[in-house]
Amino acid sequence: MKAIPSVTVSPARPGGHPAPKTPAPRHPGASPCGCGGGCGCGCEETCCQLECAEQPLFFCSQLLAAEDLNSMVAWVQTRLGRSRFVDGWGVACGLAVTCGADGPASIAVGPGYAVDCCGRDVVVCEPASIDLSCACAEPEEPCADLGAYAGRRENGAGPRRVLVDLAIRYAESGSDPQSALARDACGQVSACEYTRVREGFELTWSEGVAGGSPADAAVRRWREAWDCCCEVVERFARRFGGAFEDDRAAGPELAGAVRRWLLAWIAEHPPGQFCFLAERICALDDDELVRLDRLVPILFALVQDCRNALTLCPCPPCSEKDGVPLARICLEAGGGKHPCRVVSIDPYPPYRRPLGTDCCPAPLGAVNLGCVVWRREHDACRLLADRGVRVRLPDQATPLPTTLGELRELCKQDLFARCGETVCLQVIDGLDEFCLGGERRVIGFYPCPDERPRPIEIQAAKVGPDAVDPGTSTFSYRLKVVGINQSFSSLLLEVVDPLPEPLSYQQDDSGVEPARDGRQTSWMFEIGPGEFDLGWNLVVDAPPRAAEVTVVNAIHVVAYRDGEVVATADSAQVRTRLEVLQEGGGFDDLTTVNFIGTARREVLVDAGIRTFADLATTPVEKLRELFPNVAEDLFVQWREEAARRAQEPRA
């Protein structure tokens, strides 16, 4: 993802002065980035990290140099920068992002105050703007040289949408230059030096990813670090898994290899809390070292020790170039008279970062459960309840894992719960070997199936007439589907209506194009999170009948997510009686006469013309009144064909 600095607020150099040396960037804890960790992750930028400061001390008659005075400034900056570990970083107030007045692709940022991840103040005193026109530039086509995509945009596609994530970051520049009165022999002082540093800001943008957000990186890093703690399990399984399945391999050689491997791991990854592990491994005899039920608890302790270090909320480093997210902008490129214009602005999390810490990052609308692992169960219950997660305490504790499979299942547990969701705590006791007393500790979570609300609820209904008059050839059903999608993703809703004989589909007003397979008709609707209420009319064709028929019908509803069925529902059956004339009159299928379709047949039936004999004896003048736009020759043809059909024997 590329980031393009667009607007920098800094003072211009006054005329009449030689160009001073550009001052080095100043911020607390700046150092080359050594912020790797876990499984070897790292970064390429300069990092801001926790720094131990040295407070300047002055005495009477001391000769003060620039270094002494600047050290006082640096000490104050370091002290102030540490506030990011207490209050966090992000937007504190203001910095409203609105449509700009400088062009269709401009964005305005109002006055406000933010703190970046290095603890530096980012202050906007006057409104600023940024032009995002360059974000609409057509992406380079890698196959353009081959001519395979030549004219692709010109041949067809309309406007395209472009997502942009807007951020603000700290910037500074020198000001108030003065000529130096004296210069040392090393040339460390130029002819003109800045005497002030003006703090400013820089508006930047990066390409947004649909379905992603600037907060995803912190969640991903935290999840990767959490998963890295289980690396010891996988490496042990790859090194020794097969040996434990072969009874012939279980002997002193295997025991020695296991002991050396575990001690080497501990030497490379020293425990933070469980200091007894190396001694515990050395105390195991050869028979115990070839038994998984004795080794897996040690592996569990190594995993848990690593996770405990993560949940204690270490002071995280960050890149000094990280900006404070402000909003996501949706642009439209290539449409109308403007080649690039702003469609909408979304200045809300996760595209905007309010002031806060990153101790337990989580996706939007979710809570990170990992931060209560290894806490006492009642403390974990209180913390999760404060964050909107309902907790159920187990009646019995879970025994320590004794197989690699059990330990792997513990490593695979989901870390995030949605607000309002109920989770069951997985706890252990019997921690005397850990010297932790008899209080139960949380080691994991699992959903409570008996208390978890159904994510999808659907009710379906089909309403129709109890009876259809013999003179009616079409009638309507009312279809209705209501419910609630309590999940956090969209789903597809399929409504299927298998019409019984002799009915057939004619039209509907659902607004979507139905799929038809014989007499079966189905509609597909995309449903977002929240309540939904769908209703439409279905018009069916009821052809003439020689005998009374009762049709029984219902609709079937299926909800899909990612191709899997997540819910179904059926409406109650609706019964409709299709009546016929009681005096032996009956009906003939007038649509079998050339150029008489369903609509014309209905007009004839409404006029009392129900049989071939009726049509054959109807005067042309009467037919002209019913169909003023039809040629008279056609009326003659209808009468002649109806007369022939009236003479034909009935089946």
Concise description?
With 651 residues, the protein is of the alpha+beta class.
Describe this structure in words.
The chain has 651 residues and is of the alpha+beta class. It has 5 domains: 3-139 and 157-211 and 320-346, no CATH class; 221-311, no CATH class; 366-447; 456-578, Sandwich (Immunoglobulin-like), CATH 2.60.40.740; 590-647, Orthogonal Bundle (DNA polymerase, domain 1). Helices cover 23% and strands 31% of the residues. The strands form 9 sheets. The chain has a 5-stranded antiparallel sheet with strand order 1-11-10-13-14, with no helix packed on it. β5 (97-99) and β6 (106-109) form a beta hairpin. α4 runs antiparallel to α5 and α5 runs antiparallel to α6 (277-283). The chain is flat, with a radius of gyration of 38 Å. The protein starts with a strand and ends with a helix. The relative contact order is 0.08. The model is unreliable at 1-6, 9-25, 31-44 and 148-156 (pLDDT under 50).
Features:
single chain, 651 residues, alpha+beta, 5 domains, 5-stranded antiparallel beta sheet, 14 helices, flat, disordered N terminus
Radius of gyration: 38 Å
Care to count the β-strands?
31
Helix count?
Answer: 14
Q: Based on helices, strands and strand pairing, what is the structural class?
A: alpha+beta
Count of all domains: 5
**Helical residue percent band:** 10-25%
Low-pLDDT residue spans:
1-6, 9-25, 31-44, 148-156
End-to-end span in angstroms? 75 Å
Spatial strand arrangement across the major sheet = 1-11-10-13-14
Query: What number is the mean pLDDT?
Result: 80
The major sheet is characterized as:
5 strands, antiparallel
**Percent strand:** 25-35%
Q: What is the approximate shape?
A: flat
